[in-house]
Amino acid sequence: MEIAKKAIRIGALIAVSPLVILYWLLRPVSREDSLFAGFSQTMSLFPGLLGSYLRIAFYRCAMSHCASDSYIGFGTLFSHRDTELHSGIYIGPQCNIGLSAIHRNCLLGSGVHLLSGKNQHRFDDPDTPVRLQGGEFTKISLGENTWVGNGAIIMANIGRDCIIGAGTVVTNDIPPGSIVAGNPGKVVRSRYAESTQGATT
Q1: Residue 198: what pLDDT?
Q2: DSSP at 29
Q3: What is the DSSP string of 57-102?
Q4: What distance in Å separates the CA atoms of residue 187 and residue 107, rounded to the nearest whole number?
Q5: Of 12, 118, 139, 194, which sits most exposed with the smallest number of CB within 10 A?
Q6: What is the structure's pLDDT at 197?
């Protein structure tokens, strides 16, 4: 099985090599993240498991870090080259991933939005259009073994071993082992406390 997967990965890399070459040729004369996002839109359109292999092959060449054993679903978009996809992660279809580090064994459901922090747009000056006021992009971290439910919106760091409920909006950093739900997201209980209680009963 591993030999077959390796062969598919090599085939996928060969298949996307023209796009990779074009991407690297355009980098010196383009805005880096805009160029990367444009190629990401193209890569998002390939369906099925083969599509995931093609995306992984491309992002391994274009992204800061992309593990070969991850899965990226159909329609998922990335907006920043300095994104990290670590080993064993699953990203469902139609996600929108900003500047982030997604650590080992994370699961993201369908339609998850991972923003580049919560200060992407300034709006202090009412006399200036919001689009002209700039903002700050912050690299968000999803800790190892975290599960994010469908349609969640993440604007802050998530610790390891967390569960983020479907539709949750996370605006503040979440400690490890938390189960989070709601808008804004609140810690409803700790997985670590539950495991401790189980060990003592």
Answers
A1: 56
A2: G
A3: HHHHHHSSEE-TT-EE-TT-EE--SS-EE-TT-EE-TT-EE-SEEE
A4: 19
A5: 194
A6: 60
Q: How many domains does the chain have?
A: 1
Measured distance CA(156)–CA(4) in Å, rounded: 38
pLDDT at 135 over 70: yes
Integer Cα distance of 91 and 198 in angstroms = 31
Cβ-based neighbours of 61, under 8 Å, separated by 6 or more: 13, 16, 20, 23, 24
Give all strands (DSSP E) within 130-190, no chain letters: 140-142, 147-148, 153-154, 163-164, 169-170, 178-181, 186-190
Two structure tokens written together for 183: 């808008």
Residue for token digits 């992009």? Answer: 137
CA 116 to chain centre: 10
**Domain containing residue 127: CATH number:** 2.160.10.10
Phi, psi of 19 (to 5 degrees): -65, -40
pLDDT for position 201 = 47
Residue pointed to by tokens 């950093």: 173
β-pairing, 163-164 vs 147-148, is: parallel
pLDDT > 90 fraction of the chain, expressed in percent and rounded: 82
Does position 200 have pLDDT exceeding 90, yes or no?
Answer: no
Please give the model's pTM, rounded to 2 decimal places.
0.89
Residue 69 domain boundaries? 2-200
